[in-house]
Amino acid sequence: MKEQILGKFKELFGSEGDIRTYFAPGRVNLIGEHTDYNGGHVFPCALTIGTYAAARKRDDNLLRFYSMNFERQGVIESSLTDMNPGKESIWTAYPKGVMWAFTQRGMDIPNGMDIVIYGNIPNGSGLSSSASLEVLTGYILKDMFGFDVTNQDLALIGQYSENNYNSVNCGIMDQFAIAMGKKDHAIFLDTSNLEFQYAPIHLEGSKIVIACSNKKRGLGDSKYNERRAECETALAELQKAVKIDNLGQLTEEQFEEHKSAIADEVRVRRAKHAVYENQRTLRAVEALKKNDIRLFGELMNASHVSLRDDYEVTGIELDTLVEESWKQPGVIGSRMTGAGFGGCTVSIVEDGAIENFKKNVGEAYKEKIGYAADFYVVEIGDGPARI
């Protein structure tokens, strides 16, 4: 991919000067869904698919962007003085937002740039193409201009830019998983304080398979905000009965003891998911430490059931993909991943079963839903890098 993006850069912007190439991964969350804003744990990993860039400094403040994914848009010109938080609707708002966020931290960018981008993360898949582009941009700025920032800083800058430049109320998980990615490891992250540890993922004889539903997520944002509000209300009700700062501090037993403090049955189920999913994530990490991949798979399955029945964020597309996956030989575990209402599932599948898995699940999905799903066999990779 490096040669293709370098070739396109030279075709558009010429071959002279110091042209550098970069990569930042996408991410998938293995377990721990809708826990990040409830003070719980998540367990994401960086992927070997992601976003590539070729970039070169300019001697003025002009910015020229080109995406090989949106070629019909051509070269998009802007400048370092043309930053409009909350007012840009095209893809360049993500890299420009990161540039703006650097200046907000007192790191003024002295030169404009020419940048060519290519991503092989499926659009709308829930594998964090936007966070990948944010971390990639931050890494380019760090490398090009020598800014003294860590990869963890890049995650926080990416989140800040998405919250404040692009007006998207995302948590920290996506940018953190991408910036801090480590080959063959997932990141066990406590979202309440950003303490984390790497956990090795040994999938001897198995692979991670992503199934993309190809459903356009229309309801996602409104339902996401609704779920957040329901959990916040449930937390406030529980706090009258038990001293906690967030739902992630409760065990299942404590929740069952105090759940009568929640006045509405729907909110009971929402809070139950947040508490039980956090505990599942803790158990899943312990299972991996003991190399118990079967238990890990069972916890993935239980996670999906909870997201379907208690949190109600799956929908017929994701349920079809997961329930058909559970029927297949060689499937260790399968669940929806991401916000829900479309996007992807993540499955752990034995090597010898992968082709039949894709064929059988794909055929059943198309027959029931009316259009095809896409399947990606992915590896766990490192964070951003110059390549």
Shape: globular
Share of helical residues = 40-55%
Estimate the strand proportion. Answer: 15-25%
Strands ordered across the widest β-sheet: 5-4-6-3-1-13
Order of SSEs: HEEEEEHEHHHEEEHHHHHEEHEE
Q: Provide the residue-averaged pLDDT.
A: 94
Please, how many helices? 11
Model regions low in confidence, pLDDT < 50 over at least 5 residues:
none
Overall strand count: 13
CATH class of the domain at 2-30 and 42-199: Alpha Beta
How would you sum up the major sheet? 6 strands, mixed
* N- to C-terminal distance: 10 Å
Which key features would you list for this structure?
about 375 residues, four-stranded antiparallel beta sheet, alpha+beta, Ribosomal Protein S5, domain 2, six-stranded mixed beta sheet, about 40% helix
Topology, please?
Layout (H helix, E strand, L loop, with lengths): L1 H12 L6 E10 L11 E2 L1 E14 L4 E6 L8 E4 L13 H12 L8 E7 L9 H17 L5 H14 L8 H7 L5 E6 L4 E6 L5 E7 L7 H19 L13 H7 L6 H25 L3 H17 L5 H12 L4 E7 L6 E7 L3 H16 L4 E5 L6 E2 L1
Parallel strand pairs: 4-6
Antiparallel strand pairs: 1-3, 1-13, 2-7, 3-6, 4-5, 7-8, 9-11, 9-12, 10-11
